[in-house]
Structure formats: structure tokens, C-alpha cells
Amino acid sequence: MFGFIKTIFSGLGGLAGTAKAAASLLGAGASLYGGIQQNKQAKKQARQAREQAAFDAERKRIQTRRLSGQQRANFAAAGLKIEGSPALLIEETEQLGYQEADSILRYGDMQAKALKKQGRNALIGGGLSAGGGILGGIADNRLLKQTYPTLFGPQP
After folding, report:
1. Residue 17 vs residues 85, 141, 144: alpha-carbon distances, Å
2. What pTM did the predictor assign?
3. Rounded CA gap, 32 and 18, in Å?
């Protein structure tokens, strides 16, 4: 009678070990999936950062052209020729505006690179977490410990 109960409980122990291993695999899969999704999201955000920077830079260029056009009109209305100091002022306005537009683009690019790096780090972290979960599940599996006691058994 006790042999029968022992057999049932040893079978349940094996089943519990299998369930624990399956849970480890599911956890590993979830970690990996989470890393993949975070990487996708980061790539999307990086693309959006670049698009927004391009939009903002173009808007700055338009503002600069409008401002230099307004300066030309003001100088002409005042009866001044666009040469000498007025021309230098307009040229400086244009240079500063285009430099600011370039700075906007550079900032957007830096932001996009940082977001992509975060995504890669999340992907790597998810992979490492998945690997650790799988290895932990293997190490805890009773069936493997019984089958390969030299690998998973207590070490002297």
C-alpha cells in the first residue's frame, strides 16, 4: 500500500517538475517577447523623433526665409539699398536660422539614436533574462537531476 502512495507522489513530483520547467519556458518566452516589443517600440519612437525634427527644422527654415524677406521689405520701404550693413544683417539672419535648423536635426538624430540604443538594450536584456529562466528551469527540474545526478546533483 505504501508503495502505491509513494508511486503516486513520485509521479506528482515529476509532474510538478515538468510544470515548473514549463513555467520557466513560458517566463523565458515572455521575457524575450517583452524585449522584442520594447525594441520595436523604441524603433518607432526613433523614427518619430527624426520625423518631428525634420518637420521642426523645415518650419525654422520657413520662418527664417520669411524674416529675411520681411527685413528686405522693411529696408526697401525705408529707401535703403540691400547692400552693406542691411545686406550683412539679412545674411546673418539667414545663417543663424539655418544653423538653428541644423541643430534641430542633429538633436533629433541624437534622440533617435538614444531611443534605438534603449531598444537594443531591452532586447538584449530580454534575451538574457530568457536564457537565465531556461537555465534556472533546467537546474530545478527533478527529472534531470534524477537522470543526470553528476550534472545536477549536490556537489561535494
Report:
1. 85, 5, 9
2. 0.67
3. 21
